Structures
1.
Amino acid sequence: MTHTLQLDGRRAAFDDFGPATAPAILLIHGAGHDRGVWQAVTAGLAAAGRRVIVPDLPGHGDSEGEAPGAVDAMATWVLAFADARGLDRFELAGHSMGSLVALAAAAAAPTRIGRLHLLGSLAPMPVAPLLLEAARSDPAQAHALINKFSFAPAEVLGEERRRTLETGNRARMERNGSETLARDLAACNAWQDGLAAAAHRNGPTLLLCGALDRMTPVKAVGPLYEALQAGGGEVRRVELAGCGHAMQEEDPAAVVRALLGTNTGPLSKK
């Protein structure tokens, strides 16, 4: 069931699962996506007794307004949304663009964010010029490029599973619209404050990486990991075997285990 509230005079849509008195975790989706991308992870976390709140960012899914087009603006919205839900202190997780939003929110309100979970993250997070241009002028090509690099190879996932994931991802991007995708990708490309934000983070942080991720590859996560370590908080880097960038859809059970900190199953920790 979709919940809504009014934020800045516009409808904000969200899911809210699990016990109302349990510690809350907010899940923030990535570029061109909406809260539906977290569906399986949400179910797993709620089944483990967590309260899970998953909003659609403005201009995405069922939330009104225009996509903000800037990471800091999205982070401000997330904190205002948390205020509207009566959340003083909470865990925050974000995937891809959502990880930048989560990192910016944690920098803006460090005492409010308990555990921070960054999935498929890099800082900075440059976007290829070809994809930026395709998002503006040829959405079908942009969707094809994103699908090509979002998932583990068919040799790992299986032809049918990969085809199903690509079909669902394309439909989600089409629903959210080409302008939203273009604004989201431009926001990722423009945000240059990630390493500074990470260096001021002194709370526990998880960097969750897909071992087969070609969009935010494991080999490129070093600067973000080192900046987080410089902040003085506990930092875990976990790689999910057999996963690409879209790990929460490829292996939601492994993502749930990592977010809960149980680390059982096909994980490698560094």
2.
Amino acid sequence: MQLTVLGCWAPYPRPGEACSGYLLQSNTTNLLLEAGNGSFAELTRHIEYTSLSGQIITHFHPDHYADIYCLRHAIEGARREGRMNSKISLFIPRDPVEISSKIAGYTQAFNTTIIDDLPDVEEINGLKLKTSVAGALKLYFIPITHSLPGYAVLVKGQGKNFFYSGDTGATDMIKKAARDVDLFLCEASGLDKDADYLKSIHLTARQAGELAKAAKARRLLITHFWPEYDPRELLDQARSGFGQEVETAVQGKKYTV
């Protein structure tokens, strides 16, 4: 699998860059994780949007889903013009219902699955998780602790395991679900000094490192940076928490899982 960072800033981007967006590719499967402000334009620098297999929105804060409306119009236009035959699979949380119901109504662009409605059927590391598929990729959804309901995501494909935290505080469930993953993409929303402000709804960079270490992740890639911070400071604290090398998300950069 290959991961391309389309955006890594939150809750607003730096000039010319984008909020959360990540393209995960495996053979002919192109899975879009998040659709934050500006991420759709970056996506089109890397692939034709008509080749997307699926889209996951982990929760409904604008820096994670604002560009879903760009994608909707692009797909509807491509289908009207005969450039795209199929709709794409869209996975979204239920709450807030006024947002999910509106997006689920875009039936000319998306085949929408409400993650909450998926059964807890498959056991991973002692956890029964909601599961589905997108192309050749197996998806597992793990509840997060945040100011809005949402999900972290475990993705399995080509013999590799990839985990994306979404926005969350540290939980035992995430630690168990992310056990031994090849690449852990984890939010690092602040520095040590921000721990009280972020408590229970976000992770500091050091906490991201500690969580990945507890999960015994093989590699850690941090993301979701406050635009006023130097990512090098976040990197230093994440490295201290993880106890080994850490990478920072860089827009446009590709990472092998």
3.
Amino acid sequence: MPSAPSKRLIGALVEHGRVDEVVEVLLRPTGWDESTSRWEHFAMCMTERGRSAELLTLLPRLRAADIDSFVARTQIDTLLADQLARENRWAEVLELLKHTSGWADTWLPRQLGRLGLTDQLRRLADTGNQTARQELVELLLAKGPVNDAVTVLRGLVEEDSAQTPDRWAPTTLAEQLSDQGDLAELGTRIATGDSFAAAVLADRACQGRVPNADQILTAGLSPDGSFPTG
């Protein structure tokens, strides 16, 4: 399989206005990771050189072309959605998303998170979109209210309990409980077998970030999950 074009080559070709040559080499079959980063670099080079309008003309033309590569088609769609979103052309974004092959399930919530659109993220998270739920939590942790983020995390952990546990949700919940001083709930979760909460507590105790850290490290918690009192 041919290697992907170097980022230096892409930048040089864009610099000299040889955009068609960039597209030609990008359309050669390569590995997913290589191709993804090169397409993104191409879009960045075009934008940095003030050629966003040209990029917005080029990408729909490429979408209409008969391109065999699934990787290339996906990258073209994603870059077009990115560019339209930056231009606040959301009606066109939503129309594009109707005809995608699945990447929109992660792309849209990440865009909403980047824009800080909490209400829209909540509605999307309520549909069961896992990426939207994670983006919502991260946005709430960054901008508040943090208690709302903890509530979302509790719901995610409860849903996951009957399935294969998702490390991110219980770990983040335990970290927030520790940071907020809610040691009662943290201890209860550990007592009921939450290994992720136990790992967080052990880490925080090693750092001396919980009360009576030395006793926790030597004797652990009480069977009911209560912390040592001194």
4.
Amino acid sequence: MQKRRKVGNLLALAVLSALVQRPMHPYEIATALRAWGKDQDMEFKWGSFYTVIRNMDKHRMIEAVESVREGRRPERTVYRITELGRAELVDWARELVSTPMPEHPRFRAGLSVLAALHPDEAATLLRQRLDLLEDAIRQDREALDAHLREVPRLFLVESEYDLAMRDAEASWLRGLLAELTSGSYPGLDTWRAFHETGEMPAELTELAERTTTSKANAESTDTTSIPKTNAESAAKTSAPKANAKSAGADTTGADTTTPKASAPKASTSTASTSTASSREAD
């Protein structure tokens, strides 16, 4: 279970990873995080940056050590990480590495309404995605190999993970496309018939009704002994989800988002600043 934290914004984790090196003022922290590509590793909004800094100071994860002024620039407060902040950094890292949490990629959302597309169009779009994905994999692998000549592998491990996930997706897409092209994909004739006749096959209508009824029955059980989340899981277990539920959707709303290549970057929270700066992602 995800732990409730006093400052739960992932930007706070990034700030701690920067201050573990040395004390910095907020502008230095933001510059370092951009240079290390932390905004590619974590989803956070820069607009909340100074609020996060204040909250971290409030909860004693960081503390002010001095104020400095450079030329005519405004005075800046320099912060350092506290022992409480170091403990939070380690505990947060343990949680993120050890505990799988539900994530919701856009591609998965598109696949959940794949039935809204004619199977021939779906195959064309999936092949387009695969072409772009393979190009992104090639670029990422070249970039990773180049960075490995300068940056310790430890600080590129998240880029290795990204590449492995892209490879796995590409392999899965090739298999799916092979089934769609050969006609061996289960239910392909029914899927095609729906789009060509405009009529929902009776077996899919029945499946959708059965799934809905099963979920409603599960949720009507005693909620004092079975949490809602467990009831939802029971409903999903008792009957498979049918993509046919969305087959009548407007096809103009289908998600055709395709992957883009992104050069791997070092998580140089403990690597040299000169190396990190050469890969600035600002």
